[in-house]
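Thread: Newbie trying to understand structure tokens

Hi all, I'm a second-year student working on a class project, and my supervisor (Dr. K.) asked me to get a predicted structure for one chain before our next meeting. I've only ever worked with sequences, so writing a 3D structure as a token string is new to me. If someone could post the tokens and maybe explain what I'm looking at, I'd be very grateful. Here's the chain:
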Amino acid sequence: MNSLATLEVQSRRRPVAGLTAFLAAVCLLGLANTRAAETDPLAAWRANVSVHPMTEVPGRHTLHTYYLTRPESPDGSRVLFYVSKTASGEHGDLVVLERATGKETVIARDIDTEDAHRGACQQWISGGKRVAYHDVKDGRWSVHVVDLDTLRDRKLVEDRQLCFGRAVDDILPIYGCHWNPGEHRDLEFLDAATGQIRTVVSIADVEKHYGPWLAKQFGGRPTSIFFPNISPDGQRVFFKMSAPGPQGAANNYASKEASERQGTVVYDLTNGKPVFMREQWGHPAWHPDSRRLLEASGQIFDTAAGGKLTRIPNIPKLPGDHPSVSPDGTLFVKDGPMTEMGGKPGEWCVMVGDIRGDHYTILHRFNNTGGAKSWRVNHPHPIFSPDGKRIYFNVNEGQWTRLFVADAAGSVSLARAK
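---
Reply by user tm_fold:
Sure, no problem. This is what the structure looks like when written as tokens:
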């Protein structure tokens, strides 16, 4: 081969070699980032985090439900929230927003709620094909399901309220009104696809196991199962107990005397028996392993080990916090007033931290004394997106409660409605 031919071959090879070196560098960088995330799960939340309202449409409250159910759809394409233009926030509509375009679709209208604390208990089900919520009209409660492909709204049951199932299947936990349950004192599962209802935990079974404590705690009043939450694997459920209060018989649910609620029971649905009971209720949330509960003040209860308690060490206290765990189990997020961190009166924050303890960062701080003027006020109730790259929370600053989202560094913040 002559020298010119040799030069031509070498010149053709150099770009290949350069590309190979570039790809190798990219792989090494990716590996380094992966290792950094493994050793420091907080890395993506320490800097370059974008925090902003989910929508810029003015003149309304926008809020997600609670720290126990994600407003983002299972596939990450949409966000579900409740909107209201009333001062109290207790009457409004449900909206689904497309993250890619910011387009909003009203999927249910003219909803009345118990309060603005949890809105309509709206939640994704059926893998994102449906949305469930509850409503009250003329003092009578009902549970509804909206089929999103047709926007058909089906009323599936009356005289029940709704709590939180799993977004990936059709099962919804329902219960009788905690202030006046009547005959509906058991925990039932409602199939959103078929409308079928079955009892999964009877009040008689709970009384059999915890009768003396129930009698002592509630003074012999009849009790009912309240606020059930299904575990991520669908095999367990936790709930608290309730008994009617002085205002219960009058159906005055908008009263702090409507009912008395206390205790935490974890029930094994597969084996049909309770596996853990705590005499207090704080703000429990499932760990992704479906056996541990994360409670307020950094408490972790292992319900498969007799309720063994561990604590997340060296994390500042936010009184009355609502904690939830990232999908991979490495992080927690919580809210609360900053009174013990030197904050101003009424100042709250949303904090994300390493579930192993010691390390945390504050995502957002704000005055939380405004927003919807409901008898039971709204709280931020932070929760991760299904992929763990975003955190949603409510901000009650100024006239309106607004749904915010924090995008981790490297996460794409998509369109917002205006």
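A couple of things are worth pointing out once you decode it. The two ends are 67 Å apart (CA to CA). Confidence is low (pLDDT under 50) at residues 1-17, 22-35. Feel free to ask follow-ups in this thread.
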